[in-house]
Structures are given as structure tokens and as C-alpha cells.
Design brief:
There is one protein chain. The chain has about 400 residues and is an alpha/beta fold. Helix content is about 55%, strand content about 10%. The chain has two domains: about 260 residues, Alpha/Beta hydrolase fold, catalytic domain (Rossmann fold), CATH 3.40.50.1820; about 120 residues, AhpD-like (Up-down Bundle). Helix 2 packs across helix 3. It is globular. The termini are far apart.
């Protein structure tokens, strides 16, 4: 993979995908490298030009052993884009990469299309990260790397199932502790909460429900501060959710990047796009189900498939005024009240992928029983057991 000198340092990068396609810049977490995005490049390189790079002091990029700020990381990416002749890009950043993404959105707003913030925050506990940097400088990071990898970054179950992934991360941990320590000190000094209200780019925030590194509350705070942003909470996942379950994370990212740029509450929207609706529909219901529906439509049903894809999935589900979790809850509630078994069952598993928890579903059914009748609630409980089986205790 090539190197280029940009913003005063040698940066290691990979650029994959059609030359004329929109660019996605992927920015990794502290202690990781550009290989963290393998599954995303495999999924997106057919339709996007995928740029991934090693943050300063990581992977093949140069170690700069002097204090840095998150704004410096944003300027590193801007310099890399300049060197590669890229005017604008979407940014997908995880943890430290998401912190950089926030700073980029503020410093280089005219070069950003859409922003995806994964497992990140606008501020961390300074004492904890300064101490970690001090330990790294004093002892290296062998004393804590295993506890960082699991269960902090990846769930214990995933670590048992995929020991090769854990080994790969351990092998790619920065060989020079100085670059790692500089970035950990940078995280300690991070202080973006009062600035990010100025972010104007459409923003998707994603977090694992079981993330101990950047807990859900941090993403909820981002959601409150960044105007018009959308939050997705993925159940039973930890910090590196894009590594552990790319099959769940990638459709959310794809649907968000492909939406028409529409802000909530601005009146009439442009005509719904079939392509945008199809992306949303596949992200929620799954590609296999949608492809089967389209293939079975025939001449008679083709216009109907076009209608529901544009109207339900581009116009309704594509409206950023309501998060997808909220839409899932509303859909299940209406299907319960109207006794629409087939549609309830169709939307049940997608609701869990959209961040609905078992406790919230149970509360929803009880609420429906009050306003739509106990028989409706009984039916919803039965349909849930028939779909989920032993997965819900």
C-alpha cells in the first residue's frame, strides 16, 4: 500500500473502488490500523471509492512524538485528501476516528458530505487516558492490551469464536509505543461538547448497547448536541461493532450514505428515489427478503413494488425526523392494534437490529393492550414467541 507526505507527515493509505465514485474516508480507533475496515471496503468498494489510512503513529504512518490535538488529526485527513486530489468525502470514523470526524466536520465543513460516528464521544475521562499514556511510555502496552481487546473492544463470545481476529489486532498494535501514547494523551485532552452544535453535515451515530469503552450515554449526548443527527443502538455488541458484526452495521451505513440530503421540518421534500428507498428497505428488512419480493413481483406486481419502495421506504423511512428505532416501535404498535400478523412478524427482528430491546418490546405490547385491547396484546405476545422462540427468555 502506498504512502504520501501530507500535513507534514508520511501517511500510509489504501484507495479502492471506481475512480469517479463518491469517496468514503474510513478512520480507525486508537491502537488499530486501516485493516480494521476490511469488511467495509469489501462491502462498499463496488459503489464508492474507499479511502482508508493509518492515523499518525499507527500502522505504516509516521510516528510524530510531540503533543497533538484532535484538530491536528482532522488536518492530517484534509492534507491526505489534498494530496490525492479528493475534493469531498463522506467520513466513517470509529472511536478516535469518530473524534477526528467531529473535528473535521467543524474545521473542513465544505469538504464533508455525510458523517458516521461509531462508538465515539466528544469528551473522555482525562485522568484515565493520561494514566494509560503514562503506562504505555513506562512499560509499553503489553500489560493491558489483552484487556483492551476483549471484552472492551470485542465481546467475550466473539473472542471465543474468532481468536484469529484477536490475534490479528494484537499483531497490528502499534510497534512504536510513542505514537500510541501521543494519541491517548490527545483523547485525554479532547473537549468537543460545546463545539459540535455547529456541525451541519447529516450525521449518523452508532453504538453497541454493551460498549464499555464509549457507553451508550456518550452517544446519546452526541445525538442531543449535533443538530438533526440520528442514533442507532445495536444490541449485544461492544466497541468495535463494525468488526464484530459488519453484516448488521454495514446496511445502516449504506442506507444513511445513500439517502437524499433532507433535513427534518423543512416542508415538501423532493420526489422519493427508488434507489434510496431500496437501500433503506434492504437495511431494515434484509437484502434476501427484499430481493425475493422483487423477483416474485412479475409484471403485475412491479408497479406495486416501485410504489412501496418509494413511498414507504424512501419517503417515510428516509425522513430523518424520526430515528429508525422509533419507526420500528411505531410500526410494531400499529400492527398490534390493527392485528396485522404478517407485517408484525416481518418487522420484529428488524426492530431488534434497530436497537429495540426485549424490555421495550414487552412494554410496548402492554401499552397496546391498554389502548387496543388485551386480545391484541395476547396476539402480539404469541407472534413474538413464534418468531423469536428461545431467544427471548
Amino acid at each position: 500500500m502506498p504512502h504520501v507526505r501530507a500535513n507534514g507527515l508520511n501517511q500510509h493509505y489504501e484507495l479502492t473502488g471506481p475512480a469517479e465514485a463518491p469517496v468514503i474516508a474510513f478512520s480507525h480507533s486508537v491502537g488499530a490500523s486501516l485493516e480494521m475496515w476490511d469488511a467495509q471496503v469489501a462491502a462498499f468498494a463496488g459503489r464508492y471509492r474507499c479511502l482508508r489510512y493509518d492515523i499518525r503513529g499507527h500502522g505504516g504512518s509516521e510516528v510524530i512524538d510531540r503533543p497533538a490535538r484532535v484538530d491536528d488529526l482532522a488536518d492530517d485527513l484534509a492534507g491526505l485528501l489534498d494530496a490525492l486530489g479528493i475534493a469531498r468525502a463522506h467520513i466513517v470514523g470509529l472511536s478516535l476516528g469518530g473524534m477526528m470526524g467531529q473535528a473535521f466536520a467543524l474545521r473542513h465543513a465544505g469538504r464533508l458530505d455525510r458523517l458516521v460516528l461509531v462508538s465515539t464521544s466528544a469528551k473522555m475521562d482525562a485522568a484515565t487516558f493520561h494514566e494509560r499514556a503514562a503506562v504505555a511510555r513506562r512499560e509499553g502496552y503489553g500489560s493491558f492490551i489483552d484487556s483492551v481487546l476483549s471484552p472492551r473492544w470485542l465481546t467475550a463470545d466473539f473472542a471465543k469464536r474468532s481468536p484469529e481476529t484477536i490475534a490479528a489486532f494484537r499483531d497490528r498494535f502499534p510497534s512504536d509505543w510513542r505514537g500510541y501514547a501521543v494519541c491517548v494523551d490527545l483523547i485525554a485532552e479532547l473537549d468537543l461538547p460545546e463545539r459540535i452544535g455547529a456541525i451541519g453535515a447529516p450525521t449518523l451515530i452508532m453504538v453497541g448497547a454493551d460498549d464499555p469503552a464509549t457507553p451508550v450515554a456518550m452517544s446519546e449526548d452526541l445525538r442531543k448536541r449535533i443538530p438533526g443527527s440520528e442514533l442507532v443502538i445495536l444490541p449485544r455488541l461492544a466497541h468495535l461493532l463494525t468488526v464484530e458484526r459488519p453484516d448488521i452495521a454495514n446496511p445502516y451505513i449504506a442506507a444513511f450514505l445513500e439517502r437524499e440530503r433532507t433535513e427534518p421540518g423543512q416542508g415538501k421534500r423532493d420526489a422519493a428515489s427508488f434507489e434510496a428507498g431500496l437501500a433503506n428497505r434492504k437495511a431494515v428488512l434484509g437484502s434476501a427478503h427484499v430481493e425475493r419480493s422483487l423477483a416474485a413481483a412479475g409484471d403485475f406486481g412491479a408497479a406495486w413494488q416501485d410504489f412501496i419502495t418509494r413511498t414507504a421506504w424512501a419517503d417515510a423511512w428516509g425522513d430523518p425526523a424520526l430515528a429508525w428505532k422509533t419507526r420500528s416501535l411505531l410500526t410494531l404498535a400499529m400492527m398490534t392494534a390493527l392485528h396485522r400478523e404478517e407485517e408484525f412478524k416481518l418487522h420484529l427482528r428488524p426492530a431488534f437490529r434497530n436497537g429495540v430491546t426485549a424490555a421495550e418490546l414487552a412494554a410496548l405490547i402492554r401499552h397496546c393492550a391498554v389502548y387496543a385491547g388485551v386480545p391484541a396484546g395476547n396476539a402480539a405476545m404469541r407472534w413474538t414467541r413464534e418468531v423469536m422462540g428461545e431467544e427471548l427468555k
